[in-house]
Automatic annotation (TrEMBL):
Gene3D superfamilies listed in its UniProt record: von Willebrand factor, type A domain, Zinc/RING finger domain, C3HC4 (zinc finger)
Domain annotation VWFA: ranges: 100-251
Protein name: General transcription and DNA repair factor IIH
GO MF term set: zinc ion binding
A Pfam family this chain is assigned to: C1_4
GO cellular component, one term: transcription factor TFIIH holo complex
Organism: Rickenella mellea
Biased composition, class Basic residues, residue ranges: 23-42
C4-type zinc finger segments: 329-346
Localization (cell): Nucleus
Family (UniProt): Belongs to the GTF2H2 family.
GO annotation (BP), single: DNA-templated transcription
Region ranges (Disordered): 1-43
Keywords, alphabetical: DNA damage, DNA repair, Metal-binding, Nucleus, Transcription, Transcription regulation, Zinc, Zinc-finger
Length: 438
């Protein structure tokens, strides 16, 4: 009974009189609740794994407008691409369209890190395949070879070839490329440099390195290898997946290449695909100061004769296999499987006219269209000159550099108006203005 009485007295003090003891209990409860809330926030903000920090919900990147349409999100993506293209040079540059590239892949144990999904190694192989396909599409007269860095040595994964299927086949089997050990930049660069020592002077020599480690195991002084690359005019570009290393930055700066550190998956692909366009040639410096353009040397090419499928089988000089279809060298009549390539018998470069035409647009890019900011009598056309689609009658709310609220983009030469879709299609695919043919 005394216990019940004491309990009743405590309740009466808390409810009726608001005693100090009741206040203390009440304040203590608020403090506990506050600590629980703060602890819950800490759990939400804390990320246990690196891949959780880079996790993005793709359905949140595209937002619907008030009418429930996704057209505004698509227009925004096109506008971003247009702004990026406006920063690119639109005048003619001296470029090397006959390219020879060695792709150096880091196959060290650090490529098994999961900061990029699913691993750095799997993502590197995926983007490398896409890079090879796009590179050959934009540079049909080029050749690619693949070299790996694993266990302190350089491994030749694929020979230099002008056929994208051969390059893709070399990096298709991931089990043969399983990462192990530490990389060696010096051994891999020396192997790549030796494979390009026989190339002519009119072609470019490039090395693209995908590097995910923070260490390199070299048998000698890597600066001697760098000096040899500078002497041989080899351009080195590095795409780093971990952090910037001084030697990597120095190699890119001294050879005229590009260097970038990937922040996430999308940025990794962006900086890798920036290496697809042919590099510009810098003017050679004179002895007394100033700059002078290198002289233009003529080179010999051959246009082959294509054999039909019904022709009698014969041995090809590239694979020594019996095949019916193929190409005949115009100089020595040797049978070749694919073009463009170099004849293994006489050394003549074999190309076709479509390959030359597809490489031509790099030398003379289409000038960017001007954004029409307001309607005037000088733009009487109500439809796009390219696809005949009607222009929107009301201005959109999108604003920014190089974006037209009317959806009109005018060619500075022929003064025809094009829609945003045709603007992207002309500059990224056709590479020729349908209005003026330039």
């Amino acid at each position: 009974m005394e216990v019940e009485s004491g309990s009743d007295d405590f309740i009466d003090d808390d409810d009726d009189f608001g005693g100090s003891r009741g206040k203390n209990v009440k304040g203590k409860g608020k403090a506990i609740d506050r600590r629980k809330k703060d602890k819950g926030k800490g759990k939400i903000n804390e990320q246990a794994y690196a891949w959780e920090a880079s996790y993005t919900r793709s359905w949140d990147t595209v937002q619907e407008d008030e009418a429930g349409s996704l057209q505004s999100a698509v227009d925004d993506l096109l506008a971003r691409g247009r702004r990026r293209r406006l920063l690119a040079p639109s005048s003619a540059f001296r470029r090397t369209i006959i390219r020879h590239l060695i792709l150096l892949l880091d196959l060290s144990a650090s490529m098994m890190d999961r900061d990029m999904r699913p691993t750095r190694f799997d993502l590197m192989l995926e983007y490398s395949r896409e890079f090879v396909l796009e590179w050959f599409d934009q540079n049909p007269l080029g050749q690619i070879g693949v070299v790996g860095m694993r266990a302190g040595v350089g491994e030749r994964i694929g020979e230099m070839s002008s056929n994208p299927q051969d390059v893709l086949k070399a990096i298709a089997d991931r089990h043969k490329l399983e990462p192990a050990g530490e990389p060696s930049l010096q051994n891999a660069i020396e192997m790549a440099r030796s494979s390009m020592s026989h190339l002519p002077t009119h072609s470019s020599r490039e090395i693209t390195i995908i590097f995910g480690s923070l260490t390199t195991v070299d048998p000698g002084n890597i600066h001697d290898t760098l000096d040899a690359c500078i002497k041989d005019k080899i351009r080195i570009s590095v795409v780093a997946l971990a952090a910037e290393m001084k030697i990597c930055r120095e190699m890119c700066d001294k050879t005229g290449g590009q260097f970038g550190v990937a922040i996430n998956d999308g940025h990794f692909k962006d900086i890798l695909f920036e290496l697809i366009p042919p590099p510009t040639q810098r003017a050679a410096s004179k002895a007394g100061g100033g700059a002078s353009n290198p002289s233009a040397d003529l080179m010999m090419m051959g246009f082959p004769t294509r054999l039909p499928d019904t022709s009698p089988p014969a041995l090809c000089v590239c694979h020594s296999e019996l095949k019916s279809e193929g190409f005949l060298c115009p100089r020595c009549s040797a049978k070749l499987c694919d073009v463009p390539t170099d004849c293994d018998i006489c050394g003549l470069m074999i190309v076709s006219s479509p390959h030359l035409a597809r490489s031509f647009h790099h030398l003379f890019p289409v000038k960017p269209y001007d954004a029409v900011m307001e309607a005037s009598l000088s733009s009487p056309s109500a439809n796009c000159h390219g696809c005949e689609a009607p222009f929107p009658k009301t201005a959109s709310a999108m604003s920014g550099e190089g974006i037209s609220p009317l959806g009109r983009y005018k060619c500075p030469i022929c003064l025809n108006d094009f829609c945003s879709d045709c603007d992207v299609f002309v500059h990224d695919v056709v590479h020729c203005c349908p209005g003026c043919g330039k």
